[in-house]
Each structure stands twice: as C-alpha cells, then as structure tokens.
Amino acid sequence: MELEAQWWTGQLAADIHQALRYKELKLPSYKGQSPQLHLRRYFADLIAIVSNRFRLCPAARHLAVYLLDLFMDRYDISVQQLHVVALSCLLLASKFEEKEDSVPKLEQLNSLGCMTNMNLVLTKQNLLHMELLLLETFQWNLCLPTAAHFIDYYLSIAVHETDLHDGWPMVCLEKTKLYMAKYADYFLEVSLQDHAFLNYAPSLVATACVASSRIILRLSPTWPTRLHHLTAYSWDFLVPCIERLLIAHDNDVKEANKQKGQHAQSAQHTVFQSPAPTPQQASVQQHIPQYLQAHQPSLHYHHQTSEQQNCQQILSANHTASYPLQTCPAALQSSVQARGHGQTGAAMSLAVPLEVKPCISVSYNRSYQVNGRYSCVTPCFER
C-alpha cells in the first residue's frame, strides 16, 4: 500500500497524467449521427458483459466502447455486422491494454450466447479484416484516453483523513476508501451506457465520478482544494456531468427499491405456504447490486415529464465562490448532443458520409441538488 501511494504521488504518475490530458485534447470528434444509435446501448452492454466474462480491465472495456462509438459515428453498419465490429473493438482494446494471456481467443468468442443466437460464426480471416479496417479508420492510433485511464489517479487522493462524514470525523479511513472506489467504479460504468457522456472530456467524466461518489457518501467538503488542484476542474464546470450521474444513480436506486418491493410482496403471499424463497425471488436478489440494496428511497429529485421542464441550478455558495473556473479547455462543451434514430442498413457502407438527423434532445432537470446535501441514505459508516 505504501509503495502504491508513493507511485501515485510520484513525478512519473504526474507526467503520465499530463500526457493523457494533452492527448485528450486531440481526440476525434463525436457527432452522434449513427443510424444505429438506438442500438448503441445494447452493444455497449454486450462489450461490458464479454469483458467481465474474460475479466478484462476497465481501461480495455472503455476503450472498446469508445472505438465502437467512433466507428458507428462514421459508417452505416448492419445489425449483424455490428456484432462483429463490437467484438473486434473489444479484441483490439484488449490487445492494447491487457497482457497477451488475457486476450479472448476466437473459440471463446464463438461460444458466446449472443453469437449462437444470431447464428454468427467468427473466422480468423473476418476478424483480421475487421481489425485492419478499424486500425485504418483510427490511423493506427489506439492511444485514446478514456475516463478509465484517469480514475485511478484521481482516486489516489479522493479520500483524506481530514475529510468529514456527515460533519463527523471518519472512524475508518480504509473502509471509506473502499466504498469510494466501489462507487467511482459504479459511476464509471454508468458513463458507458449513455453516449451523451462523450460530449465531456474523459478526464472530466472521471473527475465527476469522484465528485458524485463523495456526494453519495456525504463527505465534506464536497470538492476539496486538493482535488481541484489535481484535476484542474472547478466545481462549476463539473456540475452538468455530476447531475447526469446522480440522475442515473437515482433511477437505479428506485428500480432496486421497486424490485425489492415486488420481492417483499411476493414473499408476503407465500409466507404461509413455504418459508423458502422462490427461484424468482432469488433471481431478483441476485440482480440487485449490493451497493444499491442498502439505500432507502429518500432521493429528492423530481423526474422530468414529457414536457420541457424549467432548469435551475441550486449550488452551494461556498463552492461557487471558492473555485473559480480555470484551466478548463474551452472546446469542451457540456451541452447534450441530439439523439438520432435511423433505419438499419442492409450492408456496411464505408464511403458515404452521414448527415446529422434532427431529433429529440436529452433533457435533464437542473434542480437536482449537488451542493453537498444529497439526501440518499448511505449506511456505510458508523460514528
């Protein structure tokens, strides 16, 4: 632990972080214009499931999804080909980020359930062709920073012994760091599920994951000076991305509580019949994340309706006054790109440019409180 702490505070880690921050300024632009954009969530989840199946690192998973997003943004691809593209992106990312022994083999990929359901069989020649096409598209440059490349560096100082939990000193620093890492990993996966996060710089998304975790864990100050200096992001600049992450967390908590309510209702009907849980109830419990089961439905957030809602940021005065906006790239836009829906192409077209299609933009309520008084109950600590 001491050696790891020395590594993160050393000059080499700082130089690597600076190099990644420089590279992210030159990332390819994402327009969100794929005709198959409505299928994006499915293939992002597919990559996540396969990467978890082979225990790939988060950097490989995030790089694979990012490669898929950029490739879909440029070409009109059939649904069947998208499966090959998604797995090829995962293979390239794993070869770039993982050891050779951890890279999935062709036989293992063909044994996946999604391949058998689609009646797809990958061949060595098809994978090589697709990998070459991907590499040529990205000009053989796979050094594309993602939020997963920044998160560990920021987590190294995300929790400090001087932080307070609910205004009280922390009883166990190591336990707090453990929960911080779990929540940061959760928010990092949330950012993979929505292409709107591609409108933020990867370092900003990673920073927002840390800030959101501090809000959920009710640590104060919400955005300490040390994190402001390390990330070079002010609180004001983080708020739009934090709001998105907290809204997703809110929805996950409510969905988990809904499933728990259904489980309790089902158990009440069968209490006089059999004390043992039914397979359906056991399945529900298995699919509820443990870090969400403990929460209570006390989230003060009014969901958006079908009509456009008025947005108003409620920010703490001490955050606004303490951290002026600085060192933030001007080209980074926090506005949400429009979603696009189009017809699925019958074949892959590699030469015809796509046009941005007007559609409904994703809206979110700015009245979500991110001022350090987020009311989600987190019974993780004891005074």
UniProtKB/TrEMBL annotation:
It comes from Anser brachyrhynchus. Residues 256-286 are annotated as: Disordered. Belongs to the cyclin family. PANTHER family: CYCLINS (PTHR10177). The keyword Metal-binding does not apply. The gene is CCNJ. This is Cyclin-J. SMART domains: CYCLIN, Cyclin_C. Residues 262-286 have a biased composition (Polar residues). Gene3D superfamilies: Cyclin-like. Residues 45-136 form the Cyclin-like domain. InterPro entries: Cyclin, Cyclin-like_dom, Cyclin-like_sf, Cyclin_C-dom, Cyclin_N. It holds the Pfam family Cyclin_N. The keyword rRNA-binding does not apply. Keywords: Cyclin. Residues 145-290 form the Cyclin C-terminal domain.
